[in-house]
Amino acid sequence: MAIIAVAGRKGGVGKSTIAGNLAAEFAEMGRKVVVLDADPQHSLVAWAGQGEGMLARSVEKVGSAGAIRTQARKAEKDADIVIIDTPPGMPEAIYQAALVADVMLLPCGPSPLDLFPLKDALSLALKARAERRSKKPRIRFVPSKVLMTTNLGRGLASSLKEMGRKVLPGIGQRVVVAEAVAAGLTVAEYAPGSPAREEFRELAKAVDKILRR
Fold it and tell me: E strand or H helix at 35, and its extent?
C-alpha cells in the first residue's frame, strides 16, 4: 500500500498528465490503482470521461482540500497504489497531500519562471515532513514538458539538482500525450510503443524503486 502525491504551485507543468500516466504504468505492473482528482477543475475526471480506458475505472473526485487525507486513507484500504493529483494555487491541498503521502513528486517545466513556485511546493512538503516527524513524504523532482532541442530543456535536470533534491527521469513535450488525453486514454493504451510511453514507464520504475526501500 502506498500513496503518491503529484504537486506543484503552478499550473501547466504536467501534474495531471503525470498522475494519469503513472497510474497506467502501475496498473501494467499488476497493481490495483486509485487516482484521486483533488483539483477543483477536475481535469483527470474530464480526461477519464473522454473514453473507456483504465482511468474511467480508476479516477475519483475529491471534494475539498480537507477531504484529501480521509479519502486517500480510505482508498488505500482497497488499492495497492493511490495517486493524488493536487491543484495549483492551493497550498492547503498540497500540504494535506504531503501529510499523507509516501512519495511526493514535484514536476517542473523548463521555464525559469517554473522554478519559483517549485520552491514553494518544496517548502510545503518539508513543512509536512516536520509535522509528521518523518522522512516521508520522500520528495523527488520530475523534469516535465522538456524539449531536449533547447538549452533550457537540456539544462533543466541540472538546475533541479542544484536545489538539493533527487531528480527522477523526465517527461518530454510530445504531441502523442495530448492525443491520448483527447481519446480518453493513457499513453500506455493509446501509443504503447511510443517514446512517450517509455518515458512514463521509466518514471514509474523509478518511483516503484523508492517505494520498495
Answer: strand 33-37
Q: How many residues does the chain have?
A: 213
188 contact partners, CB below 8 Å, separation of at least 6: 21, 24, 25, 28, 197, 200, 201
pLDDT digits 0-9 by tens, 83-120: 999 988 789 999 999 999 999 999 887 666 677 778 88
Residue ranges of the chain whose pLDDT lies below 70: 11-12, 110-113, 146-159, 161-162, 164
Non-local CB neighbours of 183 within 8 Å, separated by 6+ positions: 50, 51, 53, 190
Of 193, 181, 173, 174, nearest to 53 (Cα)? 181
d(CA 142, CA 41): 23
Longest alpha-carbon distance in the chain: 45
Q: Phi and psi dihedrals of 46, rounded to 5?
A: -65, -45
Question: Residue 121 in contact with residue 9, Cβ under 8 Å?
Answer: yes
The count of other CB atoms within 10 Å of the CB of residue 16 is 25
